[in-house]
Design goal:
The chain contains no helices and eight strands. Strands 1, 2, 3, 4, 5, 6, 7 and 8 form an eight-stranded antiparallel β-sheet that branches. The protein starts with a strand and ends with a strand.
C-alpha cells in the first residue's frame, strides 16, 4: 500500500490579505490510492494557544481531495485563524499521500509554493 496514515506539515500561515481576483489560501492535498475511503482529521498547533483538532474531511477511494484551509470549518463552526503561524498533523484512517500548497496574493506578484508533507512511520 502506498502512503502513510500520519503526516506533518511544520509551516502553515493563512495570509489574511489578497489582491486582485485570486484569494490567498493554503491547501492540504490528499491522494488516496487505496480501495477504501479515507477519514481525515487535521490538528493545528500554534505558538501561543492550545491545538485545534476538530477539523474533519474525507477522501474517496482512488481519489484526490484538496482541503482548502481558508474554507475549512471544524465541527463547532470554527475556522483556521488567519495571520497566525501554525503546524498541521494530518491523520488518516487509511494510508494516503499528503502535499501542502500555499498561494499568496498579498502582493501584485503572486507567490505559489508546494511541498510534500513529512510522512510519519508507524511503529
Amino acid at each position: 500500500m502506498i502512503g502513510k496514515k500520519t503526516w506533518i506539515i511544520p509551516d502553515g500561515f493563512l495570509q489574511p490579505k489578497s489582491t486582485g481576483e485570486e484569494v490567498s489560501h493554503e491547501a492540504v492535498c490528499v491522494l488516496n490510492l487505496g480501495d477504501q475511503g479515507a477519514d481525515i482529521r487535521l490538528t493545528f498547533y500554534f505558538e501561543d494557544r492550545e491545538p485545534m483538532d476538530r477539523f474533519l474531511s474525507t477522501c474517496g477511494a482512488q481519489r484526490t481531495h484538496h482541503i482548502r484551509l481558508d474554507k475549512l470549518k471544524d465541527e463547532t463552526g470554527s475556522s483556521v485563524p488567519m495571520g497566525v503561524p501554525y503546524a498541521i498533523k494530518v491523520d488518516s484512517s487509511v494510508p494516503v499521500v499528503v502535499q501542502h500548497s500555499r498561494l499568496d496574493t498579498s502582493q501584485e506578484a503572486l507567490a505559489l509554493f508546494t511541498t510534500m508533507a513529512f510522512p510519519v512511520t508507524e511503529e
